[in-house]
Amino acid sequence: MTDVYLNENYIGDIENPKEFVRKVRSERRKSSIPGIINVYFDENSNEVRIESSKGRARRPVIVVENGKSLLTEKHMEKLGTELKFSDLVKQGIIEYLDASEEENALVALYEKDITTKHTHLEISPIAMLGICASLMPYSNFCSSSRLIKGNKMQKQSLGLYTANYLLRMDTDTNVLHYPQVPIVRSFTSEIFPQSRYPYGQNIVIAIMSYEGYNMQDSIIVNKGSIDRGFGRSTYFRPYSVEELRYSGGLKDEIIIPDKEVKGYRSEKDYRYLEEDGIIFPEAKIKESDVIIGKISPPRFLGGMEEFSIAANIRRESSVSVKHGEKGVVDFVVVTENEEGNKLVQVRVRETRIPEIGDKFASRHEQKGVIGLIVPEEDMPFTAAGIKPDIIFSPFSVPSRMTVSHMLEILGGKVASLSGKYIDGTVFDSKPEDEMRKELLELGFRENSTETMYNGMTGEVYKAKIYIGNIYYLRLRHMVANRLHSRASGKVQLLTRQPIEGRARGGGLRLGEMEKDCFVAHGASLLLKERFDSDKTLVYVCENCGLMGMYDHFKQRKTCPKCGSSTEVNAIELSYAFKLLLDELKALCIYPRLNLKNKY
User: Fold this and answer.
1) 537 forms bridges with which residues in the sheet?
2) DSSP classification of residue 554
3) Is 586 in a helix, a strand, or coil?
4) Can you give the C-alpha Rg of the chain in angstroms?
5) Across 462-485, average pLDDT
6) pLDDT higher for 78 or 390?
7) 430 burial class (0-12, 13-18, 19+ CB within 10 angstroms)?
8) SS3 category, 314
9) CA 293 → CA 285, 314, 320, distances in Å?
10) Containing H/E element for 515?
11) Residue 198 to residue 194: CA distance in whole angstroms
12) Fewest Cβ atoms closer than 10 Å to its Cβ: which of 89, 248, 380, 393?
């Protein structure tokens, strides 16, 4: 007997599993049972699994019976006029398979490949990919892991994410200034409106080493290209404030705080605020400048305090520019929220010009950060005077086997010279031989290599350099958002050690290995913050080893156990250790400190 499971719940046994599965599929194709059902027979565990749950990835394939596709030429002629795609599904010509049922299927890529063993035929081989993966040209020439990662790279790229971005208050968004449509593209680009929402730029790329600055995955960028707008983008950051209402009729106020307010900052911080307490558009602001002035009632109110003087003391709660950020006020909105409270939103923009450490990638997951920005006059050039926008390391290709990256460079060169788009659709792209032949006809070497000259010395490079055009993406991971440094600053109340987090102006964690690196470099003073951040002075009794006290008025040291007759000395230790001693005493454990002379 074979066990049957419905959505992973046991529902019974059957005698002939193969006949049962065949019948279920047959009834599904006749639309006698819902099309959402998928059935799978696992021979190894002798189980039949029926799935009808939500959230499964399912894809359409053409049904094959007796070695022939059920989709005929007649269907193709009627499709779009008399027939719809949904009609083909109802007629059982096309069915949706999920991951489990696909285990029982043998799917042919093309009609010419069908044998009597095949159960299904792909509508098109590209249908096995998602939208982002199908946009990658020549992706059948690279490994599946690169395809998955390249898919993610496209999601992280900057472009025009929506046409009405100027009217929206989106969190942490980027807009590329000069996005371009790729010249080597898939036919999916026409279905997915890539021409309306492009997310990269066509650039000239040379595959060569340059002074060691493009080792590993880093890239060399031409400064002239950056000056002409390559990779330039705008970063938008919204700030918002709400006038909240509290019990007792108290509420926040959006105004310029006066000097009587608790926590008042300097006049310089409020210099951009207008009479209503809100900053004006196009103001150039930097870190800690106040954007929206706000005062709030005291945090804690007792029963009788509302009649006292304390209730009139209000605290400062203005919104200021976040740590390490700057920009220009782009847009100010004053409105109300659903509760009827006043709501003020301010959007700040900042122009981001590519700098060392910013991340770029091709569509084939060849990602890397800028290692050096070279002046245009020092860039290597071809005999025709072409200077590359990016110099890419040749060592990044062999181990990753991204042949698609190399083919796109070849295709991009042919497209640029001939003035027409190259079709790089997966499994149906323009063959490499044709592109090589075309390049030869255009007066270039068929392998896309050229003689190049050293931009600094004018000497000819001994090796021929592979150079062409490729679609490059700027990714949202920028140095300006990651740069984190601090001297001494805010500390935690309990441990007196630096707080965590870049946004809060916190410290940087330093491990044992980092400490060894600093010492080895002769930069041991950098360790001051690491070992000195919670230094505290503690008075210890030499007799009993408990912590003593120091009376500043009488200038007298005493021990709570032994009195003032014993010797009490001041020692330096970490506040975290002092905290441990206090917690041990709270547990009725007697921690003794035995002091020795350090000289």
Assistant:
1) 572
2) T
3) helix
4) 35
5) 93
6) 390
7) buried
8) coil
9) 15, 13, 9
10) helix 512-520
11) 5
12) 248
CA distance 390 to 277: 47
**Residue whose token pair is 């220009």:** 328
- pLDDT at residue 376 above 80? yes
How far apart (Å, rounded) are the C-alpha atoms in residues 128 and 57? Answer: 11
Tokens 């970063």 -> residue: 235
Neighbours of 248 (CB within 10 A): 11
User: For residue 347, what is the enclosing H or E element?
Assistant: strand 342-352
Is the pLDDT at 529 greater than 70? The verdict is no
**pTM for the complete prediction?**
0.82
CA distances from 218 to 211, 361, 401 (A): 12, 10, 18
Instruction: With residue 551 as reference, give the H or E element that holds it.
Output: strand 549-551
**Rounded to the nearest 10 degrees, how much is the dihedral formed by the CA atoms of 255, 257, 260, 262?**
110
Residue 367 is classified by DSSP as E
Taking a C-beta distance cutoff of 8 angstroms, is the pair 264, 314 a contact?
Answer: no
pLDDT (0 to 100) of residue 598? 65
CA geometry: angle 499, 502, 503, nearest 5 deg: 95
Residue 173 has pLDDT above 60, yes or no: yes
Nearest residue to 535 (alpha-carbon basis) of 488, 569, 589: 488
Determine the residue type at 383.
A
Which H helix or E strand runs over 144?
helix 144-156
State the Cα–Cα distance between residues 370 and 353, nearest whole angstrom. Answer: 12
Tens digits of residue pLDDT in 293-315: 999 998 765 444 444 555 568 89
Q: Tokens 């792209």 belong to which residue?
A: 429
DSSP annotation of 571 reads E
Q: Which domains does the chain have, with CATH numbers?
A: 2-123 (3.90.1070.20), 147-232+356-474 (2.40.270.10), 234-352 (2.40.50.150), 484-532 (3.90.1800.10), 535-586 (3.90.1800.10)
Among 87, 217, 330, 378, the active-site one is 217
pLDDT at residue 304, as a whole number: 44
Asked if 521 and 533 count as a contact pair (C-beta separation under 8 A), the reply is no
Distance CA 294, CA 242 (A): 9
What is the rounded CA–CA span in Å between residue 534 and residue 496?
A: 5
The Cα 254–Cα 243 span in angstroms is: 7
Tokens 């047959």 correspond to what residue?
26
> The tokens of 188 are what?
């999916």
Question: How high is the pLDDT of residue 489?
Answer: 84
- In the chain, the amino acid numbered 305 is E
